[in-house]
């Protein structure tokens, strides 16, 4: 009997099909070079993929030393615990602890550049270990209007800027229709790292990232915030209502020295799936134009 051996081309095609299958299923991030059986490893020694973290530089005018957000142990404290088995503190930090650390760190930022650096050094959100890039912002930080989406997708993760893919192209068209573009608007997300496989960020991930986006809003100090979709709207207003209820609604948003307006509208990704809803988004964008023109 003649057995046919797979040709190198067949083997390569099989391998590509196998990888495609996994990417489609959401397993699109390489975490290590070797496979791990996490079940049998449960009590084993703890490999770590990162060197221990440095404490951030203290703010100008403050001497180095333990602060609310610092990881430098005070003198005389017990030796550090064994390193976490996974990534930075992401797996071991309690969500509340991580969120309060995030708050302390975000507060230290006096400029957007500082905030971006602090965020790039923050390791209590597991998403940063699967993302290729931190996706901080795009557009003009002096703009009167700030758009906020949910989290980067694959294109944004690759490029390192928000709203670069199909949703971003639609957002650009919607902005253009009311005379805006990325020189007259600032664009960011409530979560700055791509969740693997484009899944939604978990409530814990959103909670840990929230102090950073709140500080980002304070530093941009826009006259108007536009939340694209339910996750951004719910995170920043506290409402539990879905976006089809909240869209078109104006919420008050407190900045340190004033209150500004927050407009909820539909996310461009939703409009790509349901183009018939664009008429509602168009209404919201017309309201946005009227607000910017002081006519509403
Ligand atoms: N969707 C978002 O919410 N943000 C992006 O940056 C891209 C897609």
UniProtKB/TrEMBL annotation:
Residues 32-105 are annotated as: Disordered. Coiled coil: none annotated. The keyword GTP-binding does not apply. One of its GO terms (biological process) is DNA repair. SUPFAM superfamilies: Uracil-DNA glycosylase-like (SSF52141). It comes from the Bacteria. The keyword 4Fe-4S applies. Residues 32-41 have a biased composition (Basic and acidic residues). GO terms for molecular function: 4 iron, 4 sulfur cluster binding; metal ion binding; nucleotidyltransferase activity; uracil DNA N-glycosylase activity. It holds the Pfam family UDG. Keywords: 4Fe-4S, DNA damage, DNA repair, Hydrolase, Iron, Iron-sulfur, Metal-binding, Nucleotidyltransferase, Transferase. It catalyses: Hydrolyzes single-stranded DNA or mismatched double-stranded DNA and polynucleotides, releasing free uracil. Gene3D superfamilies: Uracil-DNA glycosylase-like domain (3.40.470.10). Its EC number is 3.2.2.27. InterPro entries: UDG_Type-4/5 (IPR051536), Ura-DNA_glyco_family4 (IPR005273), Uracil-DNA_glycosylase-like (IPR005122), Uracil-DNA_glycosylase-like_sf (IPR036895). SMART domains: UDG, UreE_C. Residues 72-82 have a biased composition (Pro residues). Residues 136-286 form the Uracil-DNA glycosylase-like domain. It is an enzyme of class 3 (hydrolase). NCBIfam families: UDG_fam4 (TIGR00758). Belongs to the uracil-DNA glycosylase (UDG) superfamily. Type 4 (UDGa) family. This is Type-4 uracil-DNA glycosylase. It comes from Methylobacterium oryzae CBMB20.
């Amino acid at each position: 009997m003649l057995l046919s051996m797979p040709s190198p081309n067949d083997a390569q095609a099989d391998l590509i099909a196998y990888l495609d299958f996994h990417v489609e299923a959401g397993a699109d991030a390489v975490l290590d070079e070797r496979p791990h059986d996490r079940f049998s490893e449960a009590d084993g020694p703890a490999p770590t993929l990162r060197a221990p973290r440095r404490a951030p530089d203290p703010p100008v005018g403050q001497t180095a030393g333990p602060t609310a957000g610092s990881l430098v142990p005070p003198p005389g404290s017990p030796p550090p615990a064994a390193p976490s088995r996974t990534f930075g503190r992401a797996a071991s930090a309690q969500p509340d602890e991580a969120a309060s650390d995030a708050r302390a760190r975000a507060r230290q930022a006096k400029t957007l550049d500082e905030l971006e650096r602090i965020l790039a050094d923050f390791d209590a959100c597991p998403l940063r270990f699967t993302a290729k890039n931190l996706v901080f912002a795009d557009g003009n930080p002096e703009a009167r209007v700030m758009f906020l989406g949910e989290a980067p997708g694959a294109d944004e993760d690759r490029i390192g800027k928000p709203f670069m893919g199909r949703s971003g192209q639609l957002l650009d068209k919607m902005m253009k229709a009311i005379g805006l573009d990325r020189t007259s608007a600032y664009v960011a997300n409530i979560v700055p790292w791509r969740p693997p496989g484009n899944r939604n960020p978990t409530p814990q991930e959103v909670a840990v990232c929230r102090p950073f986006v709140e500080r980002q809003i304070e530093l941009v100090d826009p006259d108007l915030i536009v939340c694209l979709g339910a996750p951004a709207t719910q995170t920043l207003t506290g409402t539990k209502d879905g976006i089809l209820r909240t869209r078109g609604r104006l919420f008050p948003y407190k900045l340190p020295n004033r209150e500004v307006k927050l407009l909820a509208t539909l996310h461009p990704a939703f409009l790509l799936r349901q183009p018939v809803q664009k008429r509602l988004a168009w209404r919201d964008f017309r309201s946005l134009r009227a607000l910017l023109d002081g006519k509403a």
